[in-house]
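Let us practice reading a record.
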Amino acid sequence: MFNTFYIGYEFKVTPLQPGVEILIAELGYAGFESFVETDEGVTAYIQKEEWNDTILKDIQILESDEFEISYTFENIEPTNWNEEWEKNFNPIIVDDVCSVRAPFHEKPNTQYDIIIEPKMSFGTGHHETTHMMIQHILKNDFEDKSVLDMGCGTGVLAILAEMKGAKNINAVDYDNWCYLNSLENVERNNCKNITVIEGDASILKSKKYDIIIANINRNILLNDMKTYVSCLNKNGILFLSGFYNEDILVIKEECERQMLKFEEKLERNNWISLKFLN
């Protein structure tokens, strides 16, 4: 990783929250791999070979009237990125029940203790969408269930699903870095029931699950919803996140088109997670 060249963007965001959280999520989907929050906003990094001069064209928050965002960017010398995230990755505790931490953090007194090294993968529990998905898993029965974690990132949701008793779990991500990172984290947490797969929704043909977790983004969810539903067993559960409050209507409409029944909504800083029943 020391020989990898990056471009760094320095964003100034007003108001900071939830502006920085929204910006980080959208940049992550656009291909940015590492983020360092600052007093004025966030610094975001993308591999030079993945960069192009229209990389920010789909970052919706930049067009929002609710936030003032300015930025500059520059070429970055090769850096030890593992050291960078270690400086900025703090442990989290969700509902006093589940902790997500790095190996060098002190072990907390929680029922579920997940140890990950996120590196440049998305999904540490710090972001609202991952946090809400953890809450869903904690509140629902996963005992002996078959589970799909779609867009698994670090694998943290699949790992918690196994800790909650799931027996047959597929963790899927199209990003090679996420795939490799999930493999590492699955092994680190001594998981035995998780198969990590590199790919997208096209690899799901003929697979069936009791529970599907999809924490991605609105457009991918809408595009792949029919596939998710075709993979869901009778009386199965679908958990969705990765979108905003204003996206609820279009997400619900598509789910209802697929004959799913709305069950529950969670919200954190305008980010939404929904539960549907088959």
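A brief commentary: The domain at 6-83 is CATH 3.30.70 (Alpha-Beta Plaits).
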